[in-house]
């Protein structure tokens, strides 16, 4: 069955962004400490903005009955933990998916 949204395309775009972000060293005003936490202004980093965008996308695609759990989970897990200062968007998307 086909999903309403092209989740695979978004996954590929996110993977490419993460690879480029890793190559450029993040190119942000923040750094990551030994505990894996962002130091600086996390709300302004590109990776944090992308994480927020992905969480919103997950909330948008979550009601699709044809979206399988492994695809939803893979996209949610692709964003590094340090990129989400708050998990509210992710929890919202999971709640929508489970309903």
UniProtKB/TrEMBL annotation:
The keyword Cytoplasm does not apply. It comes from the Eukaryota. One of its GO terms (biological process) is protein ubiquitination. Residues 1-99 form the NPH3 domain. Keywords: Ubl conjugation pathway. Pfam families: NPH3. PROSITE patterns: NPH3. InterPro entries: NPH3/RPT2-like, NPH3_dom. Belongs to the NPH3 family. This is BTB/POZ domain-containing protein. It comes from Trifolium medium.
């Amino acid at each position: 069955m086909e999903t309403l949204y092209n989740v695979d395309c978004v996954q590929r775009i996110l993977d490419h962004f993460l690879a480029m972000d890793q190559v450029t060293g993040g190119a942000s005003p923040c750094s990551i400490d030994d505990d894996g936490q962002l130091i600086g202004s996390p709300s302004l980093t590109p990776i944090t903005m992308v994480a927020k965008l992905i969480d919103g996308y997950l909330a948008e695609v979550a009601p699709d009955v044809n979206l399988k759990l492994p695809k939803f989970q893979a996209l949610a897990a692709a964003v590094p933990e340090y990129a989400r200062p708050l998990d509210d968007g992710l929890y919202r998307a999971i709640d929508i998916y489970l309903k």
